[in-house]
Amino acid sequence: MSTSEKIKAQAEQVIGKAVRKAAHAVGNRTTEAKGAALEARGKARRTKEAGKDAFRH
């Protein structure tokens, strides 16, 4: 997994979690769902890149 991809995946997870928590605190369910989706996308990106690394080595 390249360093830039690791950073992107981690950033998506952190930003998604922050958005989800903030939206939950104010009761905005639409934004909460968008934050959860962003967080999930970051996790999926990390998993995909880890799979690529497994095949390379």
Can you give a write-up of this model?
The protein has 57 residues and is mainly α. The chain is built from two helices and no strands. The longest helix has 28 residues. The chain is elongated. The model has no long low-confidence stretch (mean pLDDT 91).
How many H/I helices?
A: 2
The parts where pLDDT drops under 50 for at least 5 residues are none
Helix content range: over 70%
User: Secondary-structure element sequence?
Assistant: HH
Shape: elongated
Mean pLDDT: 91
Largest sheet: none
Structural class: mainly alpha
Strand content is under 5%
Describe this structure in a few short sentences.
The chain has two helices and no strands.
Based on the model shown, name its key terms.
57 residues, mainly alpha, 91% helix, elongated
Explain the layout of strands and helices.
Blueprint: H1 3-26, H2 29-56
Helix pairs in contact: 1-2
